[in-house]
Amino acid sequence: MAYKIDADTCISCGACAADCPVDAISEGDAAYVIDADTCIECGACAAACPVGAPAAE
């Protein structure tokens, strides 16, 4: 199950995108977003996020 970023929690710091090994995360309008088709479910984004916005769907 791919990870998804909670837009209400995301502070748009980019830490998750910087740590994604497959570049599945990009900056959206209000928060960062994860491309579910590219995500390999490694959890690097969740570990890097200071506010816990990414979570497995």
Summarize the structure in words.
The chain has 57 residues and is α+β, with helices and mostly antiparallel strands. Helix content is 18%, strand content 21%. The chain contains two helices and four strands; from the N terminus they run E-H-E-E-H-E. The protein has helices spanning 15-19, 44-48; strands spanning 3-5, 25-27, 32-34, 54-56. It has a two-stranded antiparallel ribbon with strand order 1-4. The protein has a two-stranded antiparallel sheet with strand order 2-3. It is globular and about 25 Å long. The termini are close together. The relative contact order is 0.39.
Short description:
By secondary structure, the protein is of the alpha+beta class. It has two helices and four strands, in the order E-H-E-E-H-E.
What labels describe this entry?
57 residues; alpha+beta; two-stranded antiparallel ribbon; 4 strands; 2 helices
Would you tell me the overall average pLDDT?
Answer: 97
Poorly predicted regions are: none
Number of alpha- plus pi-helical segments: 2
Strand order of the largest sheet: 1-4
Largest sheet: number of strands, sense, barrel closure: 2 strands, antiparallel
Secondary-structure-based class equals alpha+beta
Overall morphology: globular
Helix content: 10-25%
Q: How much strand content do the residues show?
A: 15-25%
User: How many strands?
Assistant: 4
Q: What is the rounded distance between the termini?
A: 6 Å
SSE pattern? EHEEHE
Radius of gyration: 9 Å
